[in-house]
Amino acid sequence: MAAGSEATTPVILATGAEGEEGEHVKPFMPEKAKEIIMSLQQPAIFCNMVFDWPARHWDAKYLSEVLHGKRIRFRMGMKSMSTVPQFETTCSYVEATLEEFLTWNCDQSSISGPFRDYDHSKFWAYADYKYFVSLFEDKTDIFQDVKWSDFGFPGRNGQESTLWIGSLGAHTPCHLDSYGCNLVFQVQGRKRWHLFPPEDTPFLYPTRIPYEESSVFSKINVVNPDLKRFPQFQKAQRHMVTLSPGQVLFVPRHWWHYVESIDPITVSINSWIELEEDHLARVEEAITRMLVCALKTAENPQNTRAWLNPTEVEETSHAVNCCYLNAAVSAFFDHCRTSKVVEIQALRTDGERMKKEELNVYNHMEVGQTGSQNLTTGTGKPEAASPFGPDLLPVAQRSEEPPSERGGVFGSDEKDFVDKDGEHFGKLHCAKRQQIMNNSEKAIKEQIASNATTAPSQTFISTDDLLDCLVNPQITRIVAQLLIQGRSL
N or C of the chain: less Cβ packing under 10 Å? Predict the structure, then answer.
């Protein structure tokens, strides 16, 4: 049995569909694929959709030839079974070529060069979040090897994509992405995905430390959880699947995920698909950034490394964060004017949702509270005919086993990987963020510097405006409940 395989994890083989004359035929037209992506509320695997993509043959050896000597950053992590997540702030980093990575990955103990301090038997390496636009900046023709247009997004290709190359065991901690939904094309090797639905968020003990825009991390190592410290995690609805070469995984908005490499080398390509909800989410992220940076900088001005993810390369001063917040609010209103009442309706809906979530926070504190309901089939609307079939496979929920029996990345003969470079989703939205900041930064700074007595514009947000919202009784009630819940564990 191959390393990393197990009887309880289905491996779905993507064998090309054939038409009447024997030619390969894709099971979904682009319009249908997009309809599925925009309506489906649970993870699923597309099969037989990328067999004609040139990127289908992008193994690590081929990429090392394409990049011929280009140095990229690898994150180095320990092969261990600790109950504590290996956050990126605790990892080491190495600048190396893919050729050097491949040599080290052959377990040559006498190796010299950038990996010389990292025993292959004890460490994994991960070139994660490598944006095509930076990686292949002088080879832009290669963007056409990736064809997300087949999934209903015309013109979308490698330019909007990210590359991931890892060794056995490479991974990042469990997290959810604040923006968009995710399409992940597995090119080489296999990755095991652990996914949890959005309604399981209270059971995953979310944290914004380390801080990274658009990533909400879990305090739990989901493959080796500390159930004494995090007992509510037992109520989480784990979904698991092994993604094999030639398959594309769809990850819906706000689904938590932890991804592990279970083969010696893995190569993946992904693209985060923007959604209507992202306009409001960017405002929420700006508020979070402003608060986290202000409080953590005040706590320890000299040591941002302890709480700021290495992917966050931008300045974190209050003035810059204020610019970002105002830019996000301005962009939101600009979008509202463009899309008329769509976003206003969304705000009203979110207001109702916030009231419900406030009640949910209280309910999650109740002793004996049962697990949350599985909401992956819809939100109260009549169920449409299931889109699933041989070429679209749902990711199934797994019955939980004790961690010692389940085995983890390094708890058995298997070793493992994962799935947001200063290139990230906030990351993928980095270019958009820069654009909206540039548009408003000068005007915002002038208002801050002058402390003008004239009435501010509708979209200008001062620190006091932000605090008025944050210390609103409704909000402080939720914060107090969460603090009490955290201290009572």
Answer: N
Rounded average pLDDT over 397-421: 47
- Whole-angstrom CA distances from 388 to 45, 188, 236, 385 are 10, 25, 24, 9
pLDDT tens for residues 449-484? 544 444 555 567 776 677 667 766 678 668 777 766
Handedness of CA 195, 198, 201, 202 (dihedral sign): negative
Instruction: Tell whether the torsion through CA atoms of 13, 15, 16 and 19 is positive or negative.
Output: negative
**Is the predicted pLDDT of residue 349 greater than 60, yes or no?**
no
d(CA 87, CA 312): 14
Whether pTM > 0.70 for this model: the answer is: yes
Q: What is the DSSP string of 334-374?
A: HHHHHHTTHHHHHHHHHHHHHHHHHHHHHHHHSTTPPPPP-
Task: Identify the residue whose tokens are 């190396």.
Answer: 96
* Number of neighbours of residue 204 by Cβ within 10 angstroms: 24
Residue labelled with tokens 């067999």? 51
Location of structure tokens 């070793």? 415
